[in-house]
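TA notes, week 10

Several of you asked for a full example with nothing omitted. So below is the full record: structure tokens for the whole chain, then the designed sequence directly under it. When grading your own attempts, check the secondary structure regions first.
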């Protein structure tokens, strides 16, 4: 219950999912936008940039569909930079030590 009724999510502009579901976010975000703009007008020296984006977010998807990506198959041979059993770095060191 806490997650939906008390936790303010940054992805949905710091409103709870419950507030967003009931449509209360539109009025809340408009009030926040007004407060921020008024604060910026009173003390512009505190603001080096614009205020937060308090526009309501559009549709939010839990598991959005992703575009198809062409995947190229690869085998174990693609992962090796040299042939198995060849003179790898360790074999070269052993030959010098002998």
């Amino acid at each position: 219950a806490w997650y939906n009724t008390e936790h303010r999510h940054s992805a949905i502009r710091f409103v709870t999912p419950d507030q967003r579901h009931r449509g209360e976010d539109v009025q809340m975000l408009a009030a926040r936008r007004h407060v921020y703009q008024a604060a910026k007008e009173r003390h512009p020296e505190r603001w080096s940039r614009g205020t937060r984006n308090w526009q309501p977010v559009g549709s939010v998807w839990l598991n959005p569909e992703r575009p198809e990506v062409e995947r190229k198959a690869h085998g174990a041979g693609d992962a090796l930079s040299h042939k198995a059993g060849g003179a790898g770095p360790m074999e070269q060191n052993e030959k010098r030590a002998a």
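The mean pLDDT is 82. Use that as a sanity check on your answer.
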